[in-house]
Amino acid sequence: MAWLLVFMTYWDGQIMTVGNGVFETHIDCFVEREKLSSEVGLGNGHFPVNMQAICMRIELPKKSL
Predict the structure, then answer these.
(1) Which of 31, 48, 49, 59 is buried deepest, with most CB atoms within 10 A?
(2) Helix (H) or strand (E) holding 3
(3) Where are the domains of the chain?
(4) Which residues are within 8 A (CB) of 11 and not within 5 positions of it... i.e. 6 or more apart?
(5) The pTM is what?
(6) Contact criterion met (CB below 8 Å) for 50 and 10
(7) Secondary structure class of 30 (helix, strand, coil)
């Protein structure tokens, strides 16, 4: 399992999402989410209206032999 940081915006009637990295732990993902909130938002994990970021648990595909 891993964690994917997903950044979402709602702009002009469109929903846009971007994957902002895959992390081994929830803590690592959340630290990056906090940094993102400082860069594009209000800091301290707060984002402006129409923006949000989440850490989503994912299962990575198994590598082929």
Answers:
(1) 31
(2) strand 2-11
(3) 2-58
(4) 50
(5) 0.85
(6) yes
(7) helix
